[in-house]
Design a protein that fits this description.
- InterPro entries: Restrct_endonuc-II-like, tRNA_endonuc-like_dom_sf, UPF0102_YraN-like.
- The chain has 121 residues and is α+β, with helices and mostly antiparallel strands.
- The chain has helices spanning 3-25, 72-89; strands at residues 29-36, 41-48, 51-59, 95-103, 110-112.
- A hairpin with a 6-residue loop joins strand 4 (95-103) and strand 5 (110-112).
- The longest helix has 23 residues, at 3-25.
- The chain starts with a helix and ends in a 9-residue tail after the last strand.
């Protein structure tokens, strides 16, 4: 693995850790981390009450870079992966959604709640 890729991996892991702590502080329980599927990966799976949240975490070097951190293609991959792992984490009657947490140095994490709406993108 190249040094550049290794540094990106470390930043990504740190961003996921920060997002996990932030979710925990806001009442969520982390039930899965870096859940891999044949389609892609879900960074975090969190639960609060009857809601299961599949979370995509994006870390960028600056606040300005966060504006382009997530797009419909990336969200579609997360949605497809979440659909595959949902039976592991969701019980009948649970609400399910996909959130995005954007992180940059010196900024509070920004959460986009229910970021994926099928057919909306």
């Amino acid at each position: 693995m190249s040094d550049r890729r290794r540094r990106a991996e470390q930043r990504g892991r740190r961003g996921e850790w920060i997002a996990g702590v932030w979710l925990w502080l806001t009442g969520w329980r982390i039930v899965g981390r870096r859940v891999k599927t044949r389609i892609g990966e879900v960074d975090l799976v969190a639960r609060r009450g009857r809601t299961v949240c599949f979370v995509e975490v994006k870390w960028r070097a600056s606040r300005a870079d966060l504006a382009t951190a997530i797009d419909a293609r990336r969200l579609q991959r997360v949605a497809d992966a979440a659909r595959l792992i949902a039976p592991r984490y969701a019980r009948p009657g649970d609400d399910q959604r996909i959130d995005v947490i954007l992180i940059a140095p010196g900024c509070r994490p920004r959460r986009i709640t229910n970021a994926w709406q099928p057919g909306a993108m």
